[in-house]
Amino acid sequence: DTEVTQTPKHLVMGMTNKKSLKCEQHMGHRAMYWYKQKAKKPPELMFVYSYEKLSINESVPSRFSPECPNSSLLNLHLHALQPEDSALYLCASSQDVPNIQYFGAGTRLSVL
Amino acid sequence: AQSVTQLDSQVPVFEEAPVELRCNYSSSVSVYLFWYVQYPNQGLQLLLKYLSGSTLVKGINGFEAEFNKSQTSFHLRKPSVHISDTAEYFCAVSRYGETSGSRLTFGEGTQLTVNP
Sign of torsion, CA A89 A102 B62 B75? Predict the structure, then answer.
């Protein structure tokens, strides 16, 4: 089983709203990732958690706030987003060596 | 640092024809190589991977790829495509031996469109 579950599938929010994206995996993977993907482009890495510690932050604006409550869960808290933040947000997880990443179906976010 | 070049942004083919999607990479160290497929409005699905050993790797849905170290290529092939293969395909690399939590470097993607 290589399933990564993301909720919600779709989210529409105003620029003053606060919302959260959720990602869950039960494969025992110890690394989890958030990516942002614009149409017709490859995913762009945002954050990496390794053993529940933030190991990579790709200079993402502070209106995006990640959280890893335990080894199976990853959240992305959203606040005061801009319309240009509208995109597909993908979560992935991976085991230790080799680093094979498995992706969820994504959350389609629209910021009005 | 690694980089990935997918040589064709769009590949149109007719159903039941063979197809090759080309991927070249650049790296000063050994790498793992991956192909992912993304169907419309979905996430990325791992199609196949090269980690070590045999240079010809087989994946899901009848796809295969060949790792060529001297040409730093990892081209994806399928002998006979179906309408359902229409999707975006991404080639990706990561550094050999790196533990989890390391970066994947993606190519820009190739849109495969299979026409009846």
Answer: positive
CB contact under 8 A, A98 and B51: yes
- Report the phi/psi class of residue B7: left, alpha or beta, with left for phi > 0 and alpha for psi in -120 to 50: alpha
Question: Which chain A residues in 1-20 lie under 8 Å from chain B, judged by CB atoms?
Answer: 2, 4, 6
Contact A45 B103 (CB under 8 A): yes
Among A7, A33, A34, which residue's Cα sits nearest to residue A19?
A7
Nearest to A93 by CA among B44, B63, B25, B65: B44
- Are B90 and A42 within 8 A, CB to CB? yes
A63/chain B closest Cα distance in angstroms = 23
Q: Are B23 and B108 in contact (CB under 8 A)?
A: no
- Closest residue on chain A to B47 (Cα): A102
For residue range A2-32, list pLDDT tens digits in order.
699 999 999 999 888 899 999 999 999 999 9
Residue-wise pLDDT for B6-62, tens only, equals: 999 999 999 999 999 999 999 988 899 999 999 998 999 999 999 989 999 999 999
SS3 A103: strand
CB A91 within 8 A of CB A32: yes
Residues of B in contact with A105 (CB under 8 A): 42-43
